[in-house]
Input
Amino acid sequence: MAASAALPWGISESAYAARDLHFNYQYGPFGVPGLGLKRGLIEDLVVSPYSTILAANVFPHEAMQNLRALERSGALSSYGFYEALDFTPERVKKGEHCTIVHAYMAHHQGMSLIALNNLLNQGAMQNRFHAIQPCGPPKCSCTSGFRAQFSPFIHAPRKFLTGRVVRTLTGLVTRAYDTPDLPTPANSTALEWNVQRHDYHRGRRLFDEWSVGSVALASDTTRDNWGSFVYVRDVRSGAVWSAGYQPVCVKPNSYEVAFSEDKADFWRRDGGILTHYEVIVSGEDNSELRRVSVTNHSNRPREIELTSYAEVVLAPPASDLAHPAFSNLFVETEFYSPHQALLARRRPRSSEDAPVFGVHVLAASTQTIAGVQYETDRARFLGRGRKHGRTCRGDGGSAFVEHCRPVLDPIFSCVAA
Output
């Protein structure tokens, strides 16, 4: 099966590239379609390195060559081989040859170590097993007088196809779109075990029934122009667009969105600049991560500025909807310079209320940020008479302040200086 696809061989039961809501890899049986009794084996192609190591006792040279091929595919890490490589098309990310299952199964690692011990020490563990003598006669002879006959001719079952419905549901990408101009906004909602909900397109975030982003501004939910955004600005030309589509609504040269069970991906190309915007909700902590990767496909140097924007509420949605202006008066903001982070705190209204905090951090993976400019006042960020589509900061007409102060309408906004 693997040879016909020009791929490394070695197939057995293992984890594969599908996760549940807790981000745990799923586990399933895989095998040769012509020999297995289970239908649908032809639909999956999952190669497990431990299967090759087990076969090393029979075909040591061929197994060594296959392990080198697996290493070239990225299966080898500092702690040994990963659990599996998933070549199933429905579970391979766009532009990749396979999806590596970054996990280690203890029993598969143990089987591999025993197999290598048998190979290097002339079947040491096998000899120990066969050297064990029974303590006495068996207590019963239930098989006495029974003789089994095995036919040397085994008819291989047909390669039945079971359809793609089940596998599609457990795959990486659930929905994909190539245009933002849909009759109704297409949104994806992530449900996590810590009662955290996130509506990817609109940016509504709920943690334990506390709203992080404002919902009171969504007077017309069909417009889909509220929540958390990332502004992209070409410093030299002054062109401004969004990492997604809202709120600037600039038509990109190309646009693609993929809603997966674990995150949302936005790809867009604007004048030679390709941005990949990822939004993921943590399944362990009350937090979310947003990452923007920028690639310059033009033939000249470009200076790109990224500005984050998030509305701060830190209150139950009902309180925000009932009186947002009054609710925002209890939110205090602060900039924590050691970690270059913005902090928001809802001041308790009574001694029985527990304080609620929010944190917003801007980080770079390729270089150290020399300094961070920030703003916590929504009115100053937008500018007088402006909306999200054309902000004062987005047009480059106003510098951020270097201190936090009490504000009437708090936000989180940072830009690398």
Q: What stands out?
A: The first strand starts at residue 14 and ends at 19.
